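queue> holo job accepted (WTA)
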Amino acid sequence: MADSDINIKSVLQEDRIFDPPAEFMNRSGGAWIETMEQYSTLHAQSIADPEHFWGAVAEELHWFKRWDTVLEWDCPDARWFAGGRINACYNCVDRHVENGFEDQPAIIWEGEPVGDKGPETRTLTYGDMQREVSRCANGLKAMGVGRGDIVTIYMGMVPELTIAVLACARIGAPHSVIFGGFSAQSIADRVTDAGSKVIITCDGAWRRGSVVPLKANVDEAIGLTDIVERVVVVQRCENAITMLAGRDHWWHDVVEEASDECPCEEMDSEDMLFLLYTSGSTGKPKGIVHTTGGYLVHTFLTSRYTFNLRHHEDHVYWCTADVGWITGHSYIIYGVMQNGIPSIMYEGAPNYPAPNRFWDIVERHKVTHFYTAPTAIRAFMKWGESHPRQHDLSTLQVLGTVGEPINPEAWMWYHRVIGHEQCPIVDTWWQTETGGHMITPLPAATPTVPGSCTLPFLGIDAAVVDEHGVEQPANTGGLLVVRKPWPSMLRGIHGDRQRYIDTYFSRVDGMYFAGDSARRDERGYFWIMGRMDDVINVSGHRLGTMEVESALVSHDAVVEAAVVGMPHEIKGTGIAAFCTLSTDWKPDDELIETLRAHVASEIGAIAKPDMIRFTDALPKTRSGKIMRRLLRDVAAGREAVGDMTTLEDFSVLAKLQSDEG
Ligand code: WTA
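queue> job finished
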């Protein structure tokens, strides 16, 4: 664990309270949860009898066979809806076709490039999805992919990405989606850890007008591992790529030959639906395991209640995340599609070709529900109000945020400039591991306070406790835990049982420890204070400081590296790296650029340090542990404070501080 203090009183004081706008119920045609009283009663009941609560939700989904028990809990192992048989793709697609919604839009896709006739768009109905997904599923089967075979997906934001994900679910092959910004090395690590023999990718992906060479990255990754046997390639950018005969296949060839009928596999409720790699305290990313029944139940209900999604109200929902992150899995695909709501997929950057792109999309597609990250909101603030002001945003009903704490200034801007003070903001706290929302306002019911994610979702027993599991008094920082299991909780870390227990169930006996510190105010509202481990949230993307350190020391020049987060105006947290160099290298600007590029090629561009400082030595304790707390102060330009009695050599710190600027 990092040496962060949990007993500090948060400095953030916030007295503004925003009741749900009076007009909200009219504009949205009603709400699932209408009042705080209703929420409080339901929450109390759901905690007193979670099995009854979640069992009733599960009744709303399609099961081939009903479950025997709602929950079997033997900490840290949960089995939800054991004995039940279900298919995720069936619940997202086929069910709507069967209910007569075949012609309703499922995905509304918009490409990044804007030609003379405007941007390219594609709408796929539920009927289209059923046929396209079935074709892809049959294509995969013909390659020998079957139940339990993990398929890696490394693609841009094109409809085929969602089709591929659902095709895997359809045939019971767990997917492992890797964000398209990761490097060849990162792909190789994940493919090896997952034992994945098939990769689905694109020739390239459009990003801010240029092409990200996805297929070339895959080729390089395959050179670093020997397990990949097949690659399926979607043609998107028509960039030059090489296709290896026997191994590489064009998507259009694979699906063209395949039948558009493919039955859904009857999966066990606890069968793995997907693996998703995320960063932790060590250099090695962990493959978070999510299973089928509970994940579907939880993402279905949270999508419905948190966003107040209502099938018959012409809702158009847009989550701006990439499918490569958990937010895209749960709230572009599984949760939203189970609710039968059209989900927008946008391929590119928020400011391409101009900083009004998002608002142009909202206006043209009449978006009613919009979900994004604080880092994006801060970028929009910087680009200025004139861009959203050019567009009619009056269709918007609910605004969401996720990924990192939202600063009150950004919250107020979102509220005023995007929501015109008419849209509740749902600040949703959750994690890759939790699968779905855990702490969040409900739009028609919960009064909101800028910067607070407010109260636990129904069925979620979240608390702020000390190391012994005792709840902290109001306004006192502590560990954020969840005391009872919930349906979409992770079931493990792929291939590493011990790490699962150590990371999540060892800090506080019998409780899930999230890795965040938090406090509750006198209203009981939660305020997330930040990560307590060596994880940083860069633009809402989760990175382990150790991963960046390993990447740095893998370069010849670097002997030792310490990486910490530092305040960053747009990203929320930026990356600061302190490096000691081997004597053959000169500490100059050129080396800084070389090292930044090196980290990008080892991990991905998101991990590039914002600041690199060369130093003769790193501040360490007498036992040799790097004192990151002090480095965080230096990186933030603050005077280092707090206990330094264990610091081995004061001159190191003094030098770092005097070199400031
Ligand atoms: C942080 C993203 C404050 C938190 C869904 C958590 C947040 C980590 C919020 C998980 C929020 C996420 N307010 N902090 N609303 N949402 N976080 O796994 O530190 O990429 O532990 O999941 O992001 O990041 P992950």
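queue> Confidence is low (pLDDT under 50) at residues 1-11.
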